[in-house]
Each structure stands twice: as C-alpha cells, then as structure tokens.
Amino acid sequence: MKFVINRDLLLLNLTYVSRALSTKTPMPVLTGIKIEAYENSVFLTASNNEISIQTIIKDKRQVRIEENGIVVVPGKYFIEIIRKIEAREVDFSTFEENIVKILADRSNFTLNALEKDNYPLISFADSETVVHMDVGNLKSIIRKTTFATSLSETRVILTGVSFVADDRKLEVIATDSFRLAKKYLINDVEFPKINAVIPSKSLDELNRIIDENETPIEIHFSPSKALFKYKNILFQTRLIDGSFPNTSNLIPVDFLTSIKFNKNEIIAAIERASLFTSLDSFCIIKFTLNSDKTIEIASTTNEIGAVKEEVIPLACSNVLHFQIAFSSKYILDAIKSMDSTEITIHFTGEIKPFIITGDYDVNLTQLILPVRVS
Amino acid sequence: MKFVINRDLLLLNLTYVSRALSTKTPMPVLTGIKIEAYENSVFLTASNNEISIQTIIKDKRQVRIEENGIVVVPGKYFIEIIRKIEAREVDFSTFEENIVKILADRSNFTLNALEKDNYPLISFADSETVVHMDVGNLKSIIRKTTFATSLSETRVILTGVSFVADDRKLEVIATDSFRLAKKYLINDVEFPKINAVIPSKSLDELNRIIDENETPIEIHFSPSKALFKYKNILFQTRLIDGSFPNTSNLIPVDFLTSIKFNKNEIIAAIERASLFTSLDSFCIIKFTLNSDKTIEIASTTNEIGAVKEEVIPLACSNVLHFQIAFSSKYILDAIKSMDSTEITIHFTGEIKPFIITGDYDVNLTQLILPVRVS
Description:
Chain A is α+β, with helices and mostly antiparallel strands and 374 residues long.
C-alpha cells in the first residue's frame, strides 16, 4: 500500500471520522482508523458501537495512489502526526504487513499498525427509505430537540429523538418526560413511511460535522440503523429499539393566557432569578403574573438569599393573577433553542403543562411541566 | 452602609480580587469578599492563605457613598450577580446588620452576609525595601521563570522563584533541580538588598491581573511577604521560608558547540519528535549532531512506533559527532518562553547540563539537565 496525499485534505477527513473513534472499548481495533486504497480512492473508516463514519477521498489532484491496500492505524497517534506535520503532502506507505511509514518533508514516522483482520465488517448500505433535506433544516431540527432528551439510561428510548414521517409530514420529538420538544417539516412531495428513534448523541456528533446549510443531505432509514450521506461523508448510527411514548395528546391547545416577551430580556431575567438555585433542586423559580400586567420572576434559597426580577411583557392576551413554578434550566434550554427575537409562553393553568412558541420558529413547540410548590 | 456604583467598574475590580478568593478553606469567611465604604472610597478585599488582594475605588463620578460601613458578601454569588446585571449602576446597601440588598434596574437581590467579625485583619503595609519597575519587565520575568519551578511539595523552597538584589542587579531564578531559568535586570540606580522566594503560583496569579506594560509597579519586600502596588490594586503574597539553593556554579561557560536554530522550526520538530513519548517517561528524545552539520531529533516507543526529524541549523560553531538525550517538555518550555526568533543551544558534553539563549532575550539563561540513555 502506498499513496501520496494532500495534508490539509487528509487532516480534514480525519477530523470527520475521529468523531466515531472509540477511546474505551472492549475491541482495541476500534481505537484505529481503517485506511483503504483502491479504485483511485482512499477510504477512511472509524467506528464505535453507536456510530460509524466513512469518508472517501478521490480527487486526483489531491491523492495519488501507487499501490492498493488496507491497514488499520492507531487513530489518536495518526491524527496527531498529520496535525503536527506542516508539509503540503504526506507520503503514506506500509511495509512488512503491519508497519506504516509516513514521510513529510524532513519528518519520518514509523507506526505499528493494528491487526486489520480484527476490524469488523461495516456495511454502509443505502436503503429505499430515503429522506432528502437541506443541511440547514436538519441542523435546526437537531439544535431544537436533542437538549430535551433524557440523560438517564433508565428509559433508554427517551435518550433518543423520534422521527416519524407519513404523507407529507415529518414529525421530530424529544422528551425526558418533564419537557418535550416537537418540530415538524411539511414537504412538497410525500415522505416515505418512517418510525425511528435516533440516539441524541449521534445527532449531536453529526451536527458537528455537517456545516454547509445549503448542501443537500440524504437520510437512509433501515430497520436498525440510519445512514446520513453528506458530501464525501457516510455517517451511520444505530437506532434505539422500542416504541417511543405517544405524546400526541400532551400538547395543550386552549390557553388561559399567552404572554409575549423579548427573547433576550426574558433570558437575562430568568438567568438572574436562578442565580441562587442549584442544579440539584432543578433550579426552581416562581413566575407570577400580576393584575397590573407586570411579571415577577423570583427564587429564594434560605442559606444564600433571594432574587426578584420584574419583567414587563410585550403583550399579554388575558391579564389575571396567576402563579406557576418551574425549572429555570428547562425554560432556558427551550427559549435559547429558538431563533425568534420574540417568544410567547402559553399557560393553561397553575399546575398544568405550558408551551413556548416563537414567531420565526415555524412548526416548533417546546412544552414544559411545572412543579408544585408551597 | 449604602453606595451607588458603576457596574462595569465594580465587576472589573471584583475580577481582580476574585483571584485571591478561597474556595476550599477551613475559614469559611474567606469565601467572602470584604466590602468597606469610608473616606469616599469603596475597598474590596479577598484573601486565601497565600495571596491577599485589595482594590480601592474612589472616583467620584463612578461611586457615590451615602453611608459608611463594612460587610462581607459571599464572593462567588456576589460576582455572579454583578456579572449578570446589565444595568449601568448598582445600588448596594445593608440592613439588619447582615442582609445585603442589591438593586439594579428591575432586579432586586437580597444576600445573606458572612460574619464580618470573623474576617482576619490583613495589613497591606508598605515597606522601605521597594523595587520599582515597569509592568512589562515584571511580566517578562514571570513568564520566563515560573514554569521551571517544582510542582512537588517535597522541597517547598523549589515551588518558589528566588529574587535576589544587590547593588544595581536583580537576579531572578527558578529551578525544579532538573532545569533552571535565570533572568536578571541591571538598573541605573541601586536596588535595595533583597533575598526573597515568592511562590510561583502567586506570581502567575499576579501576571493575570497586571496587563499595561508601560505602567509602573512597586514591589515592597517585608521579611515574610511581598506587596505589589499597581494602579488601584494591592496584591500581597506570603514568601516561602528557607534558603534557596546556591546555583551560581551550575551554569556552564565553556561550550563544546553552540547551535543556532530558527525558533519555530525547532519547536515544530521537537513537538513532532515527541509525539509518541509519554509524560510518565518525561518525554525523552534523542538529539544527534551529525558530521554533515545536520541534526537528527528522534524517539522510539516500542508499542507505538518511531519518529525521526531532520533539522538543518542556522549555524553551528563546532561540527562534531555529538549525541545527547533530554526531556522534550523541558526544552519546549524553555524555548517557548523566549521572545527571540532565533535561539542557540550551547552544549558542554553528552551528559552535561546545556543552556539555551536567544539574541533578543537579554540576560536570560535557560539550563536543562540531560538524561543518560543506553
């Protein structure tokens, strides 16, 4: 195996696949990156048990293959080498089956390869169940939902994000059972039938790789995995088994009052009001609508002190005396996920779930359960 | 106690004193910031057992005192409050002796004060043993020496930096017994007699506060402490007891060969050559001068692989076959502390200490002990 490759391009592609590199693993070979040279292309593959990523480099001006072959290099060291090399080109070759030689300018590295026969066979097969969308749309879906998934493994299904498509609608839902984020897309053409739960972590990793909003991305759904095809990158994640809870009746439609705020102003007030609260106690704050249409956001922590914030809303559909308590962390997560400069909180009752919407956040609903306080 | 103060100025001064704030301490009151209002000034004080910092705010356009007093506020919370406040002015007052009220725009905080009678009496007294210098000079001394101090508490004296002044010379030395950094200043006027060891951590904290290179700074040396006076800030640190080792005969003056390098080129080559070495083994690399005047920097780690870097020096005073091994971490620390674009390594023998100098790093010597390898 022998090829000469542009250093910057190699590093960029290594950065992509490194997102799937295992650190702690019962399979040591998965700490490696599989490098294959054939058909005038170099393939880089990395995998942990959740995600597998493959990139293909085949631009003849950037890579020149002199001898085909397969090798698995120690991922961390190989990336560090390429990162530290300043040369324009890297000369990569193998000898004695399991020794890798890397030459660049006046640098000469030899690196012990991992046993390539141990590397698992990973299929990046297409599926007939394909969704096409813009990267920008997918990034927006990820950013507005994954934060609401559960971090606890007690109900594994809630660590994932539900993708359900039918007819011309794709509905994406995340919930940790205390809050829920729901975003949907309406398409011009029919979606294939989809009912899949994608691990939240996989989506967050994918979001770090995809960056060009206008670029198209394909999502291939198979029974146990989803494959994202983007530029020269194949990003594959396993799906979570099980059925996602039915949340269709959870979201209220009749409201006691809807209150509109300037987004940055309400964020700042809530952040100040929760300065003395602690994560242990879910950062509970009290929200009071007064009959003079002012809002008070307050919290008290006996040992430390108390905060009272007064906020004047932009609008209030129904002025009544109303008090509710909820987690400041949950509401901040929800509001910060929005792109709108003005957001509206719709309340249904003092101990009933409430929702948050934004004028520019089309088809997005953030729902939060309040807490009972004395 | 009651005053109104400019929010930005208060936050800036809190950031300064926060460098001395205790987190874990047997004296809970030291997690607090002492605030005093008198003589038309506000004094902020924080202290851990090593460092005490006091700032004085007395600009009448920025602070308006309505009632004198003393209070100790919980440091972390108070800083967070002021950081999160967006108002231009903050209204600070106390009531019922130990309750602090902070008003800013529509925010209203009450904060439980700490018991002010428990706060230790800290004297920031001047001394007659004063050194005057520019902040730029002091920052340069700190940056070029503190990294060479010991991290281990087994010989506490080596965790400090020695300041010795006599006649018109101030000599500053740090060593962990494997390497040594020495910088001296020659003054136009006489220095007072000084022989003090300042904790390295204190100097690093000070370096984060002082930033205006042209500003003068005063250092007041007392038997057990040093006080730095800079702008409106008093920064005081305890000194380390004991006598610093005599290192005057350690630095070689006759050299076998002196080799000059481009600084960035040698740094890059050493960084690549030590990619496979581990911190546990002190990152040992081998340095070979060949008779064709090329340099080879190499390391081998059996499990991972090997690196060879060839470097062509800018100059070499004496071409001979020469090989030496040393810690790449130590030499990188030393070279990176230098401002020169060209640096020279002066060797005295294959198992003898060597020194590094730079044309623009006047009166600076970095010394490193080699290691014996097979």
